[in-house]
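Question (not urgent): is this output format expected?
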Amino acid sequence: MVFVMVHKNRKNGFTVVEICIACIVFVLLMGGAYGVFTGVSKSFQRSTKSLGMQNEMRNGLNFIREEMQRASYRSEIKINGNKIDENYKFRLCKASEVDGKANKQLAEWFICKPFKQDGTGVVFTCSLVISDNKILYTKMATEKSDASEAEFENKVVLNQIGKIKFSTEEFTAGSSNKGALINIEAFAVDSTSGQADLKISAQTGARVEVEVLRDI
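Got this back:
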């Protein structure tokens, strides 16, 4: 009887070539996953930053809008009637875009509480200035004082402003009202690109005469 021995070549592991191919595929997959994760993470950060900037700008413009709405003439309450000084006008920078890096006064107005015979009354002189991409607000009592109301000196109300624009319109067409609607458009500057790309706008009303001047 003849026995034939058959030898079978069995693979007990992976070859070096297979391991290298597996490593390359793994690296490519991980690199792709990392790229996707990085892209999503950067997009999320940009969205979060943009949303935060929008909220800051909106809060700043709301503050400015509310202060501008309080613009009023100086007045005295007397027995025979009220005396109103209409020289306390609202002065606004000429309706054109102002660069954020400019050092320029944008607006000036007065917040006045009527003067009575008992001596009460106050005049706040308010101003809005743009400097180094910031909007600064000043409100100081220039006649009498009022301990119940806060004063500000160069309070930063808006940051990272690339440019700002003002325009005016009548409350209603043909109205004899001396006041005006004031439109504000602020553009935030992107710290990376340097471009003013985020726009926030607001509208407020002044109950006093508004003068639009090239320089205030």
